[in-house]
Amino acid sequence: MTKEIVKKAFIKSIPIMCSYIFVSMAYGIMMAEAGFSWIYSLGISLSVYTGAFQFVLITFLSSGASLLTVAVTAFLMNSRQTFYSLSFLDEFKGMGIRLPYMIHTMTDETYAVNLTLEEGKDKKDIMFLIALFSRVYWMFGAVLGGILGQFITYDMTGIDFCMTALFLIIMIDQWEKSKNHLPAVLGLSVALLCLLIIGPQNFMLPALLIVSGILLLLKDKEVNNDDN
């Protein structure tokens, strides 16, 4: 792994760094407000590493929720990341012992950045370094936020909205870069439909399954047309 590869990976990870540090700082601050030191913020970031659920986990830890509640919520909230790896099956197959780490660190942000990478012999190394850098950014911000949270005395209500804002920015960036907006429109439509029918607590997983199934059918149809 050359310095050039490390440099490319770092440059690609800069957008993630700019968002992760501040979002994870918000997480660390909220953990401190809930009475947990920066050590807990670091430990959870090492083991869980999924921003949206880490924010929800603060409430669970504070309220003494059962392990079953935590486990089911974590599965439902993070099930979308299971589908991300389908886009990189070929790359993951050749990563050897790095494969488990790539699966553990596949997030919305790393997925979005990986989609922009050009094909080449260095792609797998760059993907791995992006995942590694991104995790370091998050842990650094979580620790920094946890330390600063011990000294911040004013009301921080609403700071958790930064995670929602981050998702919106990623979606807008992908919309501008992609010529085919069908997946985005389809995902939004199905998600809204499932939200109305199933409700806000359980709509995510069914929406993902439906959208993935439709996109797979459309892709198979496109491949068959090309073959003909």
Summary tags:
76% helix; mainly alpha; globular; 12 helices
Question: What would you say this structure looks like, in words?
Answer:
The protein starts with a helix and ends with a helix. It is built from twelve helices and no strands. Helix content is 76%, strand content 0%. Helix 2 packs antiparallel against helix 9 and helix 11 packs antiparallel against helix 12 (204-227). It has helices at 3-33, 38-47, 51-63, 67-78, 80-84, 89-93, 99-104, 108-114, 123-149, 161-177, 182-198, 204-227. It has 228 residues and is mostly helical.
Describe the structure concisely:
With 228 residues, the chain is mostly helical.
Q: Calculate the mean pLDDT score and round it.
A: 80
- Alpha-carbon distance between the two ends: 42 Å
- Assess the beta-strand content as a share of residues: under 5%
Count of helical stretches: 12
C-alpha-based Rg, rounded:
19 Å
Class per helix and strand makeup: mainly alpha
Low-confidence stretches: none
Q: Choose one word for the global shape.
A: globular
Outline the secondary-structure elements.
Elements: H1 3-33, H2 38-47, H3 51-63, H4 67-78, H5 80-84, H6 89-93, H7 99-104, H8 108-114, H9 123-149, H10 161-177, H11 182-198, H12 204-227
Helix pairs in contact: 1-3, 1-9, 2-9, 3-4, 11-12
